[in-house]
């Protein structure tokens, strides 16, 4: 099992910034692929960014490219999401996820971790991000 605890959400105005943190514990191999996902009311959970912790390979949703940055601090077992130039459409509950099923074969083939929420088996409780216009 992997335990994930998010923090750092809040309310900001358009153009503002926030940094989300996800403190992780558990088996190292379960944290090989980690990611940030978000879910707005009435919408499906979508992948925002993922990172393969072995090589720090990352992938981002088109909607956040150039604005968000996913990173890791291995010494602190913490995953981050730096969010800049926030927009009202970024408003959602943000979740940290780990323990991607079949990550080894996937990463070997694709080079990055999946951005599909269906592939991840461990989730944090979420942190709310609200961006006002």
Give an overview of the whole structure.
The protein contains 1 helix and 11 strands. By secondary structure, the chain is mainly beta. It is globular, with a radius of gyration of 14 Å.
How far do the termini sit from each other? 39 Å
Q: How many H/I helical runs?
A: 1
Specify the biggest β-sheet. Answer: 7 strands, mixed
| Count of strand segments | 11
Give the class from helix and strand content and strand pairing. Answer: mainly beta
Which stretches are poorly predicted, pLDDT < 50 over at least 5 residues?
none
Question: What is the topological layout?
Answer:
Layout: E1 2-7, E2 10-13, E3 18-26, E4 33-39, E5 46-52, E6 57-60, E7 68-73, E8 78-83, E9 92-100, H1 103-110, E10 120-123, E11 127-132
Parallel strand pairs: 2-11
Antiparallel strand pairs: 1-3, 3-8, 4-5, 4-9, 5-6, 7-8, 9-10, 9-11
